[in-house]
Description:
Elements: E1 10-18, E2 21-28, H1 39-46, H2 50-54, E3 57-60, H3 61-69, E4 78-82, H4 88-96, E5 101-105, H5 108-114, H6 116-119, H7 125-139, E6 149-153, H8 162-168, E7 174-178, H9 181-190, H10 210-215, H11 218-236, E8 243-246, H12 252-261, H13 268-278, E9 280-281, E10 284-288, H14 293-298, H15 302-326
Parallel strand pairs: 4-6, 4-7, 5-6, 7-8
Antiparallel strand pairs: 1-2, 2-3, 9-10
Amino acid sequence: xxxxxxxxxxxxxxxxxxxxxxxxxxxxxxxxxxxxxxxxxxxxxxxxxxxxxxxxxxxxxxxxxxxxxxxxxxxxxxxxxxxxxxxxxxxxxxxxxxxxxxxxxxxxxxxxxxxxxxxxxxxxxxxxxxxxxxxxxxxxxxxxxxxxxxxxxxxxxxxxxxxxxxxxxxxxxxxxxxxxxxxxxxxxxxxxxxxxxxxxxxxxxxxxxxxxxxxxxxxxxxxxxxxxxxxxxxxxxxxxxxxxxxxxxxxxxxxxxxxxxxxxxxxxxxxxxxxxxxxxxxxxxxxxxxxxxxxxxxxxxxxxxxxxxxxxxxxxxxxxxxxxxxxxxxxxxxxxxxxxxxxxxx
Length: 346
């Protein structure tokens, strides 16, 4: 193992297995903020730098754990999980609009670590929690100066592994964002996510074999995966710590509920910055948002409607029940029509 040194200015961007060791590929980011809608967008821009074309760093995960143990501990203010296409990117972008926040949005390097749970079945949950604590702490470490709030938004699939994240960050609120199932399925039917392709996850988790999974129509398969994610969120929900938010509550919920709940003190300027960001599409800054809920519902095919009712009506109702039971703030403000939300740009 190489001598331990610091990682100031460097961020892990990819995780892979080499000689039975989990290895991290690192890229020079310097003081660049993670302001793009997704972490990997920032990475791609940074890789265009001449320095990163010539130099790269690799280190084993054990080295990262050692390095992070020597640095001041980073306490995450929130972990954002979601059902997909439901406003989580909007929340992340509104938080990132504050100059004193760090928001790592769906870094693919995290998925590289999570995948090791299947290739290294003998590794304990505590081992993965230790790895994730070091990795996420490194990703949100202040670089520009003055950052005091730290968030990570995960891939929808990572909700299935929520207990490991809770073990790594036991006091950190986990936020689960969801939306009317038919609206989500319409969006996914138009542009499926990579993890929603049959075979991308173990079909046994859906009580299927691969042949049967491949034979299902798209809406039915997507709905089964989303059901698995919903149940994982419900099973791991910790009243008094975690938060549930329906897409219908956005964007006002971020300032009226989330910020006070997490102890984020917003100035008038900060509120304006968040509100200004919410006026644009979360994944396409510069394009004004148009509420698309009615359009999505009108595009729901018979197959989508049937799949939503069969597989997702029950967990959606449970999420709504839990949210309303433990909702903080003014209940009357919770279900206002969505003025601005996160729509696919499909």
